[in-house]
Amino acid sequence: MRADAATLSRAVTRYDGISAMIAAAAAGLADPLAIIDAQRRELLRRLRDAQRAAMAAPDRSDAALLLEGIALRLQADLRWLEACERNWTGWKDRP
Question: Nearest CA to 40 among 8, 74, 14?
């Protein structure tokens, strides 16, 4: 299996609505933990896709390097969501 343009395109496309959703949660318009759970599932799906495509890419290729960068960015986004979750744990009990 070789990484094709469509696979690379899907992996490169990053959901930019994270900040907007988090802002909505902070403003009380949505449950922040539900948003985090949904976003985590999406990021994990994208990370899985990027890792599969990376395994299919030739070693030391431009595609492999790009996919490694994508995977690192997705991992960083997941860590950021974990920090948000730690911050918002208990929000439901706050006045």
Answer: 74
Q: What single-letter DSSP state applies at residue 91?
A: G
Whole-model pTM: value is: 0.71
Give me 21's structure tokens: 């959703």
What digits encode the pLDDT tens for the residues 33-65?
888 888 899 999 999 999 999 999 999 999 999
Pairwise CA distance, residues 35 & 38, whole Å = 5
Q: What is the DSSP string of 28-49?
A: TSS-HHHHHHHHHHHHHHHHHH
Q: What angle is formed at CA 44 by the lines to CA 79 and CA 57, rounded to 5 degrees? A: 110
Q: 72 to each of 15, 21, 27, 32, 76, how far by Cα in Å? A: 15, 22, 30, 24, 6
Residue 50 class from Cβ within 10 Å (0-12 exposed, 13-18 middle, 19+ buried)? Answer: buried
Residues 6+ apart with CB under 8 A from 46: 10, 11, 14, 15, 74
